[in-house]
Amino acid sequence: MTMEHKVERKLFDEVMVPCYNPMPMIPDHGKGSRIWDQEGREYIDFAGGIAVSCLGHCHPVMVDALTEQAQKLWHLSNIMTNAPALRLAKRLTELSFADRVFYANSGAEANEAALKLARRWAKEEHGEHKSEIIAFTKGFHGRTFFTVTVGGQPAYSDGFGPKPGDVTHLPYNDIAALADHISDRTCAVMMEPLQGEGGIVPPEPGFLQAVRELCDKHNALLVFDEVQTGNGRTGTFYAYQESGVEPDILATAKSLGGGIPIGAMLTTDALAAHMKPGVHGSTYGGNPLACAVAEAVVNEVTKPDVLAGVIEREQWFRDGLEAINDKYGIFSEVRGKGLLLGAALNQDWEGRARDILVAAGEEGLLVLVAGPNVVRFTPSLVITKADIEEGMARLERAIAKVVAG
Ligand SMILES: Cc1ncc(COP(=O)(O)O)c(C=O)c1O
After folding, report:
1. What is the pLDDT averaged over residues 335-362?
2. Nearest atom (ligand 1) to Cα of 229
3. pLDDT tens digits, residue range 108-128?
4. Which is the closest atom of ligand 1 to the Cα of 226?
5. How far, in Å, is the centroid of ligand 1 from the Cα of 10?
6. Across all residues in the chain, what is the average pLDDT?
7. Is the pLDDT of residue 346 over 70?
8. Helix (H, G, I), strand (E, B) or coil at 146
9. Rounded to 5 degrees, what angle do the CA atoms 54, 58, 62 make?
10. Is 254 a catalytic residue?
11. Distance (Å, rounded) from C-alpha 229 to C-alpha 330?
12. Which ligand 1 atom is at minimum distance from the Cα of 192?
């Protein structure tokens, strides 16, 4: 990289709103599951842009789709439709319970649309009184004011004045608490079918089924936030498909675009009918550039060998983490599904997940955390065995450093 293009990390502190604290290194380019920084130092990517880069960096099918569409049409707005948007929507309906698609640009916006649709449906079908949204402690649904209020970490929604109302939080995996609380006033239950940001918490057997039954009993909608779990990450296209429990509304984003910003809300014909012209919208939603890339990503991810490969790679990750744990004894368990995995630290190492993340960075490995006690892995769904092995060797060196103090 030429000197004139280089930037220094301290520029971030001078010109950026300080709501992030990025790593000291500045990436320059990536290929597959490797990234190189401005100095040419190479990193293995077990973070995948927080469950976004499902085909790794600069996968040829994405580059081809992007460059082809870039020569044709970038943007129209929703006063016109376009072929990539309609082809992708058709594909998403074929691949899921849904009949209809609304495009957004992020996970938060897809969830915002889901919440607004649920409220609109309840008001029009049942009346003003049916407005309660039930969600779960430690759930995460995005940072718009409605979605962050529905999310189950009050620290993220406190401090901005009056919050959107009639939102109740209950403990995840506690079916008795839900059965006790839900009523005919409940408009919708919003949940992740496997909690991501909250610490990689899978649903206990029967939990999703029980939530569905209670929603049906009280005429409430079930909204699955599959922003992190969707698009092959857990080994099926959507995580709900393994459970057999269908939602009424589903939010997807992150890996849908493989790196290009796009989100979508999927729903049924009957519910979609409540979103009449003017009820909701987005200037960029359904942007042809984003939809063309997402279509290519979806076509690649849904190849049977890619989905089967997720489960194979989950095992390689679990084997690698287990081998490290046999030596250093710092994890209490490895949990999650497919390539949405969390290594939970045991009592002796409580609160040290960030130290491991920092040490991994120094060893040339990118990982994530999910709260203070969980090291999180959301790599590319097509990461090679060699990259996993090399990444595990670097993780072991990082953990050895942390353990040695
Ligand atoms: C389950 C879930 N929902 C919503 C979001 C928000 O997505 P975005 O950051 O694209 O708005 C996230 C992001 O981490 C997420 O994990």
Report:
1. 98
2. 1
3. 999 999 999 999 999 999 999
4. 1
5. 28
6. 97
7. yes
8. helix
9. 75
10. yes
11. 26
12. 1
Give the CA distances from residue 124 to residues 78, 129, 186, in Å, rounded to whole numbers and listed in that order: 25, 11, 14
Strand 34-37: give its sheet, edge to edge: 27-31, 34-37, 42-45, 365-366
301: left (phi over 0), alpha (psi -120 to 50) or beta: alpha
- Dihedral angle over CA of 378, 37, 360, 354, nearest 10: -70
The model's pTM: 0.98
Helix/strand/coil for 371: coil
- Whether 253 lines ligand 1, by a CB cut-off of 6 Å, is yes
Contact 54, 48 (CB under 8 A): yes
DSSP 265-317: EEE-HHHHTTS-TTSS--SSTT-HHHHHHHHHHHHHHTSHHHHHHHHHHHHHH
Q: What is the mean pLDDT of residues 114-143?
A: 98
Q: Is 337 a catalytic residue?
A: no
Percentage of the chain with pLDDT > 90?
Answer: 99
Segment 156-206, tens digit of pLDDT = 999 999 999 999 999 999 999 999 999 999 999 999 999 999 999 999 999
